[in-house]
Amino acid sequence: MKRSEASEQILLIQWCELQKFKYPELGMIFHVPNGGSRNRLEAINLKKQGVKAGVPDLFLPKPNGKYHGLFIEMKFGKNGTTENQDKWLKNLNGQGYKAIVCFGFEEAKEEILKYIAS
């Protein structure tokens, strides 16, 4: 499989599944399906259902004493965040969540481990 943002996220989710016996909270991490190309009708329907552009890719709904939960925006290579993503990250951080950008599986894994340990 060619490395991409999607493949790095798949690796992270697979790692979380393998680690949830040691860290049960990792069984709660989930993907927010806001990205991807969609046909016009599907995009309109999803927007009516509450899909919002820029929401981070992953959410771990586990408070750690300092934050309400962890949001991760996955990136790979030279990809950067969009203006909408930057707004969401800023707003979520302002509401007591930890909202971060991770470039690839390894960085995301390390951030999750630090978050769980704190």
Structural features, described:
The chain is of the alpha+beta class. The protein has one domain: 3-Layer(aba) Sandwich (Trna Endonuclease, Chain: A, domain 1). It is built from four helices and four strands. Strands 1-2-3-4 form a four-stranded mixed β-sheet, sandwiched between helices. Strand 3 (70-75), helix 3 and strand 4 form a beta-alpha-beta unit. Helix 1 (5-19) runs parallel beside helix 4. It starts with a helix and ends with a helix. The model has no long low-confidence stretch (mean pLDDT 94). It comes from Paraclostridium sordellii (Clostridium sordellii).
Number of E-type strands = 4
Count of DSSP H/I helices: 4
Radius of gyration: 14 Å
- CATH architecture level-2 label: 3-Layer(aba) Sandwich
> At the first level of CATH, what is the class?
Alpha Beta
Terminal CA distance reads: 34 Å
Kindly list the characteristics that best describe this protein:
alpha+beta, 118 residues, Trna Endonuclease, Chain: A, domain 1
Topology:
Layout: H1 5-19, E1 30-31, H2 40-48, E2 58-60, E3 70-75, H3 83-94, E4 98-103, H4 105-117
Parallel strand pairs: 3-4
Antiparallel strand pairs: 1-2, 2-3
Helix pairs in contact: 1-4
Care to give the gist of this entry?
This protein is an alpha+beta fold and 118 residues long. The chain contains 4 helices and 4 strands.
